[in-house]
Amino acid sequence: MSEIRARVLIVEDDANIRRFVRMALESEGHEAFEADSIKRGLIEAGTRRPELIVVDLGLPDGDGVDFIRDLRGWSAAPVIVLSARSSEADKIAALDAGADDYLVKPFGAGELMARVRAQLRRQTQQGIAGEPLIRFGDVCIDLTRRVVERNGHPLHLTPIEYRLLTYLAAQPDRVVTHRQLLKVVWGPGHGEDSHYVRVHMANLRKKIEAEASMPRHLITEAGIGYRFVLGE
Amino acid sequence: MPIQRPDPDQLLDRLQAAAVRARRGKLKIFFGATAGVGKTYAMLGAARQQLLHGVDMVIGVVETHGRMETEVMADGMERLPLREIPYRENRLREFDLDGALARKPALILMDELAHSNVPGSRHPKRWQDVEELLAAGIDVYSTVNVQHLETLNDVISGITGIRVWETVPDKVFDTADEVVLVDLPPDELLQRLKEGKVYLPRQVERAINNFFRKGNLIALRELALRRTADRVDDDMLQYRRDQFVAPVWRTRDSLLACIGPGEGLEKIVRTAARLASQLEVPWHAIYVETPALQRLPEAKRHRILRNLKLAGDLGAVTATLSGADVDEVTVQYARDHNLSKIIVGRDHPRPWRFWFRSFADRVGKRAPDLDVIQVARTEGEREQTRPDRHDVVDHVFKQWPDYAMAAIGCGLAGLLAEVMFPIFDLPNIVMIFLLAVVLVSLRYGRGPGVLASFLSVAIFDFFFVNPRLSFAVSDVQYLMTFAVMLVVGLITGQLTAGAKYQARVATRREKRVRSLYEMSRDLSAALMPEQIAEIGERFIAAELGARAGFLLIDDKDKLQAALPSAKGLPAVDLGIAQWAFDHGEAAGQGTDTLAASPILYLPLKAPMRLRGVLALEMRNSDRLLIPEQRRLLDTFASLIAIAIERVHYVEVAQNTTVQIESERLRNSVLSAISHDLRTPLAGLIGLADTLLLTKPPPTGQQQEVIESMRNSAMRMNALVNNLLDMARLESGNVQLNRQWQPLEEVVGSSLGACAALLAGRPLKVNLAPDLPLLHLDAVMIERVLVNLLENASKYTPPQSPIEIDARIEHDGVVLTVNDHGPGLPSKREEAIFEKFERGKKESAAPGVGLGLTICRAIMQAHGGSIRGETRATGGASFILTLPRGLPPSDDGGTPDEGSAFAGMDAMDEESATERPQK
């Protein structure tokens, strides 16, 4: 894998975690900036123009979700959220506000760096937009012909399944909430009918995955949504 | 033609009636014209059929009258033992209601519905026993003769000359679920009588000569047939209504029965009841009390009130009104309540009172638009209604001080007249006496007023008219003076007494209203049940002269002993109170249930539910016969009940607030702890990781130390997670975020979460393809599966396989996690789910024994279960069940028009045909 060096902003009030994240980032050659509050974070984000931002959800001067919302007004840089376990609602709020991924505390350096790499890779891939083919595993999506093939044989997908797949596959490694999927595929009137998504995702998995109960590409984030992984 | 639709109110009534019926047992009545037609025989025949179908049936009471055929029919059926009740010297045998309720058969036979129970039974009448059996959900077969029906009773006594006293309200007959007419032509019945098949031979002759005359039998048979036909007609109407064949629109032309002081009241009431039931309309019965009627002897007044109660029992809305003009009050009432037919007793023409116009005429003249129905009165009762001379004497005797005062008043008037005599003319002296009469009437009422009139005339004649000190009159002119004086005295006396009575009535009514007002004001300020009880006691004592006790329900809806009271409690019988509460009906004194008790028990009905029982010990039980008093009491009871309910809900609201508050506090404490504990742990783990990244890289030994530091921190983190989860689950109300989702998704995400732990193990996942959507909290269930998978990886050899199966079983989904390790410790399959329990004591594997406890708590919160077992083939198996519930129907969720991909619908028509399977 090619080495990507990037400017990363860390917004976190705990000095130990800040230091460890910084060290982990710098060990891979990234440039790290620190902020310990929302206010400082926004200033740093505005001046340093980071390519990735790591945000803690509980900050002394407010909620990390507010930070993301403000940030998304003018920046498209990927955001990784740090959160406590058992607070799905906070994670969903952060993701809906525009975060791209989340990490549950405590986390190891390995986990963190894997996520950082995935987000930065996504960033560069978006650079070559207009790529008409998405390949993963033995599946190939041809966006121009609107055809999905597996091992060279065409797969029969319903319109909804096709929409789900293309929407997820277009942003690999990003966590997409049920609500976001409902809004994009079904329209804004279906915000709460999350079982629609689950049923169609189950069917889609049966067609895409080798073993639907052990998925490799259409990963479930329990209680939150889905993540599409290209895989090796 | 306009579309006819059923009246919504009627529909609602019918729905409610159907709901009540569904819970109640079914009543089937075998109906006959007379004794001996074979009702009991037919009932036993029908019961035998049920018995053959395996219905749990017992005989409650069957009277075979020694008839052989009937005895044979009853052979082999279970009989409920009768209860022995001591009555005077004898011990009488009676149906055992409590025994029947305890035995709770599906069907019970209760012969002779009209039977009167032995005194000392719970209900005076057997039909009331039957009502209770039905209410308990027991089906009842019973028999009844036409002459026992309440409203036909006097018709039949008119025909046959024999009156029966045991009657059944028509309501019972009309609301029976089924009526079977048992018919036998009169000739055959007579034949059976002669053959001795009906009664024992000795009684036959007498019976035939009296009751069983052929003419009687024909009439009775016709009545029975017609009554059954009426019922069938009702059933048919009901059917038509249910089926919407032709919706019936009914104008409400209800009846008003007027109960007055005349004779034959009972007949008016019964006729009105019969008419109302034939017309299927509600009816009212009223008694208008005028000042004149107020003075009726007590016995007669009671007879009127008793008849008003009879009307109430027969289904009428009853009222006692007061006013001077009976016709006006009656017509006003009829108009207010939209009653178009007025039923009155026919007044007998009296030629000597040519000016007298009957009540019917007067009402007719006042309201020409109302129908007036005149009912002939029964002659027989007239004897009893003669005013009793004894009563009058009694009345005078009781009021003698008033009469004495009247006499003294006249004497004083005489003295004053004596003083004035020399100065004024005689006509002016007369005025003094008239004044005395008016004052006496005003002060002491009608009787003393009359006495004063006569005395005044006498004194005036004796002392002032020439010749003085003699009753003789020299000038005939004075006879005119006496006459006018007497008449004026009597009339003014009557008028003033009447006005005074009206004033008294008005005062009393105002007092009632005032006390109701004051009570509701006091109740609205009450904050505790004890205060309510105190207020209730005070007002009931003041208004009704009764001692009151309050039995309220506790949190578990159980009736509690009476609240303590300063004034002393009535001797409450908890059993009767419980009965009144369970049935929601009044019991005890003056009611149909356990009337022998000295205490009246009224259920406290609040809008939401029964709140308890009010026990009343009346000093004078007759007061409750007066509808006004009864209504006042009922109003008191419902005001009290509403107040109790209000206090109850205030308490509930407070508790809820406290609960919400403490829940909020607990949650904030938990999340603070979880944040404060995890942040340093996160730092620890992260810093350990960064140590590995330092340059130059740490040596092999250093690396080991760093690794074990990291692992300890991770274990600590797992422990903190478990403890916090446990604390959250233990708090009782776990907030599950349940969504409808496929189980496969949760299994998938759990396996994903344990991927590192399970690396290198063969995994077999076998989920049945027809699994329904389940209503579950994905995060929680994932936690359960992760815990089980972690256990499996911890306690089984590496490389040993793990299997996950799921299938539908009964009304749930069963998920099994199997491993191939040593299995569970024997006989501890249950214990491992307890807190801080571990399979092996002091095992080398890390953990504190909370994982399975958390699993169980989560499964229970989902309405499911978890158990563990060691399979015969070795290895542990955890079996999880989850309820299926009712998944939402999935139509695939049609996308909105404007959605981002809406334009793509046409993209692949052929593939769109392959719709997702549910």
Short description:
The complex is a heterodimer of chains A (232) and B (918). Helices cover 42% and strands 23% of the residues of chain A.
In terms of topology, how is this protein built?
The complex is a heterodimer of chains A (232) and B (918).
Chain A: E1 7-11, H1 15-27, E2 31-35, H2 38-48, E3 52-56, E4 58-59, E5 62-63, H3 64-72, E6 79-83, H4 88-97, E7 101-104, H5 109-127, E8 133-136, E9 139-142, E10 147-150, E11 153-154, H6 159-169, E12 175-177, H7 178-186, H8 194-208, E13 218-221, E14 225-228
Parallel strand pairs in A: 1-2, 1-3, 3-6, 6-7
Antiparallel strand pairs in A: 4-5, 8-9, 9-10, 10-11, 12-14, 13-14
Chain B: H1 8-23, E1 27-32, H2 39-52, E2 57-61, H3 68-74, E3 83-87, E4 90-94, H4 97-103, E5 107-110, H5 126-135, E6 139-145, H6 153-160, H7 170-175, E7 178-182, H8 186-194, H9 201-210, H10 214-243, E8 254-259, H11 265-279, E9 283-289, H12 291-294, H13 298-313, E10 317-322, H14 326-336, E11 339-345, H15 359-366, E12 371-375, H16 382-385, H17 389-398, H18 400-420, H19 426-444, H20 446-464, H21 477-525, H22 529-544, E13 546-552, H23 574-583, E14 587-588, E15 599-605, E16 610-618, H24 627-693, H25 700-730, E17 739-741, H26 743-753, E18 763-767, E19 774-776, H27 778-795, E20 802-809, E21 812-819, H28 851-861, E22 865-870, E23 876-883, H29 909-912
Parallel strand pairs in B: 1-6, 1-7, 2-5, 5-6, 8-9, 8-11, 9-10, 11-12, 18-20
Antiparallel strand pairs in B: 3-4, 13-16, 14-15, 15-16, 17-19, 20-21, 21-23, 22-23
Q: State the helicity of chain A in percent bands.
A: 40-55%
The strands making up the biggest β-sheet of chain A line up spatially as 2-1-3-6-7
> What would you call the structural class of chain B?
alpha/beta
Runs of chain B in which pLDDT lies below 50 for 5 or more consecutive residues are: 244-251, 380-388, 897-918
Q: How large a portion of the residues of chain A is in β-strands, by DSSP E?
A: 15-25%
For the residues shown, what is the average pLDDT of chain A?
A: 84
Question: Beta fraction of the residues of chain B?
Answer: 5-15%
Largest sheet of chain B: 5 strands, parallel
User: Could you tell me the number of beta strands of chain B?
Assistant: 23
**Main sheet overview of chain A:** 5 strands, parallel
Question: Could you give the count of β-strands of chain A?
Answer: 14
**Uncertain parts of chain A:** none
Radius of gyration of chain B: 43 Å
Shape of chain A: globular
Name the CATH superfamily assignment of the domain at 8-242 in chain B: P-loop containing nucleotide triphosphate hydrolases
CATH class of the domain at 8-242 in chain B, please? Alpha Beta
Largest interface (C-beta under 8 Å): A-B, 60 and 76 residues
* Silhouette of chain B: elongated
Q: Helical element count of chain A?
A: 8
Provide the succession of SSEs of chain A: EHEHEEEHEHEHEEEEHEHHEE
| Proportion in helices of chain B | 40-55%
GO molecular function (chain A): cis-regulatory region sequence-specific DNA binding; identical protein binding; phosphorelay response regulator activity
DNA-binding region (chain A): 131-230
Subcellular location (chain A): Cytoplasm
Protein name (chain A): Two-component system response regulator KdpE
